[in-house]
Amino acid sequence: MPSTCRSFVLILVGLCLVGGSVAADPPGADGVEVKVRNYSEMLDTIKHFRGRVLVVDFWADTCLICKKEFPHLVQMHDKYSPAGMAAVSVSLDDPSQPGAQDKVLRFLRAQRASFTNLILNEKPEVWQEKLGFDGPPCVFVFDRQGEIKKQFKDEFSYADVEKLVKELLAKK
After folding, report:
1. Which numeric CATH code is attached to 3-16+31-170?
2. What is the mean pLDDT of the segment spanning 60-88?
3. Does residue 99 contact residue 125 with C-beta atoms inside 8 Å?
4. For residue range 125-160, what is the model confidence (pLDDT) as tens digits?
5. Whole-angstrom Cα Rg for the chain
6. What is the 3-state secondary structure (H, E, C) of the chain?
7. Residue 78 contacts by C-beta under 8 Å, 6 or more apart in sequence?
8. 16-46 burial, b if ≥16 CB within 10 A, otherwise e?
9. Domain boundaries, the chain
10. Model confidence, pTM
């Protein structure tokens, strides 16, 4: 595991050990909402899902592969959330750009992404160093204890992500 990914894991484990909870943001009328969060707030959101198998999908509006594959995340959420899976999407679009937040929200609503959706409010240099990847697509899968089981980046399939999710859900 690269040192940057290891650092991310250590930070997450530390947050999980501290405990606490994060108040959920109320959804919009259609159940889809997006919140702008900094890196620390994103970690707090991830920590909130400890006890569930968590899929965190990092994407961007400019990433055509991300947008093409996003429906698979929605399908997995719909299929496996009753069994203990949660999904979080994290847009890496710059929220300070005019219309960026609206564009992200329109896409999420079109996908019916009624799970937790964030826009990361950090410069690329910050999240690239802390998360250990250069750009989307990237998916982290966490087990119920909040540990990263796998980071999927560059070329991967959601079939592989789903296979890992099913394995982790089978472990109680």
Report:
1. 3.40.30.10
2. 96
3. no
4. 999 999 889 899 999 999 999 999 999 987 889 999
5. 15
6. CCHHHHHHHHHHHHHHHHCCCCCCCCCCCCCCCCEEECHHHHHHHHHCCCCCEEEEEEECCCCHHHHHHHHHHHHHHHHHHHHCEEEEEEECCCCCCCCHHHHHHHHHHHHCCCCEEEEECCCHHHHHHHHCCCCCCEEEEECCCCCEEEEEECCCCHHHHHHHHHHHHHCC
7. none
8. beeeeeeeeeeeeeeebbbeebebeebbebb
9. 3-16+31-170
10. 0.82
| Cα separation, 107 vs 101, whole angstroms | 10
Give the separation between CA 97 and CA 71, rounded to whole angstroms.
25
Average pLDDT, the chain: 85
Task: Give me 141's structure tokens.
Answer: 């899968």
d(CA 73, CA 111): 10
**pLDDT in the model for residue 2:** 54
- Compute the Cα dihedral for 130, 108, 158, 149 and give only its sign: positive
Give 7-42 pLDDT, tens digit per residue: 444 344 343 333 333 333 344 456 899 999 999 999
How many residues comprise the chain? 172
